[in-house]
Amino acid sequence: MPTSKEKAAFAKRLKDSLPKDIKGGTDLAREFNLLYGNGPAVSPQTAHKWLAGTTIPKRDKLQVLATWLQKDVHWLHYGPAPSGKAKPLARGEKYPLSPETIELATRFAGLSPKQRNLLEEMITEFDGGTEQATGAAPEDPIKP
Question: N or C: at which end does the chain have fewer Cβ atoms within 10 angstroms?
């Protein structure tokens, strides 16, 4: 689920990409509906929510917007790709504290013990760790 920051960033990219004659949700909905044929028309209220950063449209609608505005759908939804300058952290190196990492830690702390264990296992798997490193028992091999 997108954060309020991500929704606001989407709304800014959308507003900056719109033609100058689109003044609000009503204009955006009218022009969008002329191009969108995959379902029910978009209401001016929905278009206003896009512009206000309250919601981000689903993939099919994003594709129509991106094609109309001559933008990359990924850029419109997520913004520019991260620069290649960032290096992955070395094993054991820690990410610096940021509001995002503090929020994640808070959310992690609110999980049940079972949910925490599952998440730790998933992180270990993505991090390239092994069961032995985490103290977990190796899985039984699948028998034919």
Answer: C
The CATH superfamily assigned to 4-78 is lambda repressor-like DNA-binding domains (1.10.260.40)
Q: How far is CA 93 from the centre of its chain?
A: 26
Cβ–Cβ contacts within 10 Å for residue 141, how many?
6
Predicted local distance difference test score (pLDDT) of residue 5: 92
The list of the chain residues with pLDDT below 70 reads: 82-87, 95, 129-144
What's the DSSP call for residue 85? T
* Structure token pair of residue 33: 């509906």
Which stretches of the chain are DSSP H helices?
Answer: 4-17, 25-35, 44-52, 59-69, 73-78, 99-109, 113-127, 131-134
Reported as a single tens digit per residue, the pLDDT across 58-75 is 999 999 999 999 999 999
For the chain, give every domain's residue range.
4-78, 99-134
Query: What is the three-class DSSP state of 136?
Result: coil
Reported as half-sphere exposure (CB side, CA atoms, 13 A), residue 43 has a value of 3
Token pair belonging to 100? 């995002």
